[in-house]
Fold:
Amino acid sequence: MEKKNRVPRFHIEKRASLPWHISLLIRLLSILAAFVVCALLTMIITGVKPGDFLSTMVYGSFGTPRKMWITAQNVAVLLCISLAVTPSFLMKFWNEGADGQILMGCLASSACMIKLADKLPNGLLIPVMLILSVAAGAVWGIIPAFFKAQFNTNETLFTLMLNYIATQIVAYFIVRWEVPKGSGQIGIINQSSEIGWFPQIFGNKYVLSILAAVFMTVLIYSYIRFSKHGYELTVVGESTRTARYIGINVKRVIIRTMALSGALAGLVGFLLVSGINHTLTATITGGQGFTAVMVSWLAQFNPIAMIATSFLIIFLERGAIEISSAFTLNQSFSSILTGIILFFLIGSEFFVSYRIRRSANSEAGKEKK
Amino acid sequence: MFDITVFFPRAVAQGIPLLFGSTGETLTEKAGNLNLGIPGIMYVGGISGVIGAFLYEQNTASFNPFLAVLIPFLSSLLGSLIMGLIYSFLTITLRANQNVTGLAMTTFGVGIGNFFGGSLIKLTGAEVPNISLSATSICFRKNLPFADSLGVFGRMFLKYGFLAYLAIVIALLVSYFLNRTQTGLHLRAVGENPSTADAAGIDVGKYKYVATCLGSMIAGLGGLYYVMDYANGIWSNDGFGDRGWLAIALVIFTVWKPTLGILSSILFGGLYILYLYIPSGMNLSLKELYKMIPYVFTVVVLVISSIKNKRENQPPESLGLSFFREDR
Structure:
């Protein structure tokens, strides 16, 4: 029975470590391969030439100064959301609830803009909005963290469900505040008075989100790298037993870290309502909370690398939207391309941490001859 | 007026996609794979059926009811199988993070559904205004001819298309397989402790692959049922909504028991449409609040089941972890 003694010709083994430039090269190659597949797929579906594929993609992101600004703003917003979820992921708390936390922040901001418009001066209203949005996001983050810490409740599903609950709460208030009645939407809030609108910086409406992203990148980077809190949450993520052994209060770290994640998501909510959209819709986040999970993971939870990964995702998205509008196709084409790139990047991690070797024991090979 | 003979069939119609999804996910999770791509896979299952049916309706001269069911059914299975293979390859062969892979699958799957749903007519150059597969849908919704003559019993239990009964049969079969067969025992061993299973001579990779792919195919049928039976053959983008996530929540709610899933999915289906039956007068905004009932219910169930923390109600022990033989 020669079949029983068959030795596989290849086997997989873990790499000890890899110089950073090799692992970067592996990831870049996988992006390149993904682009080739995307170009081929686009060619099959639309008939566009691969060269045109790339130029249309680039045009979508950088074609005009306005497109460039919008690209920069989208990258900044996605980066902010990714930074917000990062502390919880480092703690291995699978927080899929950024969308809900952002929505609660948006709700708090809009509520202030609508209810306090003629009661507070703008200089006071904006700080109030900011504080309430951050608080609302933090509360929405603390709820699942509390149950995780106390009873080890599954946080993935809890945070997911909180997204839908937040969506319905927002939908409720949209119906209550709708303008005009029966339209099902709020419209631009305080359009003529611009009360509660964050003032434009350097007379440019896109700069604010970029500054916010820079601020948050520095904040999260130093929080994780240099603060005691950052150290504690990393230890909890590695092993709760070790954390308990060295005297870390695990429950407190879980709740504190999720409060921070939620608060930053609430800040993004404030940014979206006061700085960018000036309105409230139930789909204002556009599902970016999910995308942020992948952006953060692809960057290996490194805030600096997240700049690159969020840029990659936005570049794809805007490029694919350009392609789909050029061929009057459905805009969901961008989700397909994003999915393909993600598959390649996720797959490439295997080649970073493992290697495939021809089996040293080659007697099996000899017997075959 | 609240009429249980009207409410119950609607709850069942809402519950069947959830039942397909949760049965598929239970099978997958029992092999230790947490497939968060189920929402995307259900979209792909739905749209693959639509593509199959659309091409058949457009290209056939003589419409054969048997083929009209078989072609969408097989193309739906094929679509979800491909999704299952992508997920399995990434998480089992390449040992990728299951949470992230699952989310990417959902992005991809929902994208595929909405893209082909929105562009199928343009891509095939067909001359119809919208995708409406009413002829195929009638075949899918065919029920027993004598159901109406059996009064209330017939209206409540016999008026569904064949996919609804298939969902229940599959749930019973999966339950039997997991608890009463040796292969099922092996599969559970893989989910609980793959190293031990490996040492006992079980091919861990093969079990994980087969369970994940079969689970995807079962879940994909939920998408097919939704579009062909529930939605009368009319595809609308994002129409399937968040049912995939509810299906995953249902797995925890039923503590990984597909037989419990049959009743719980109908319960969830009922909660999903309960807001239509709660009187709210002229206050439309309250309806929006009532729509959160299924989600609040899920959260409450999650919390209660974690507080009770019974040993027999725990997830498979190695759920979400990838298996590498040399990791000890």
In short: The CA atoms of residues 82 and 292 of chain A lie 4 Å apart. The first strand of chain A starts at residue 10 and ends at 14. The longest helix of chain A spans residues 122-151. Residues 85-305 of chain A form one domain.
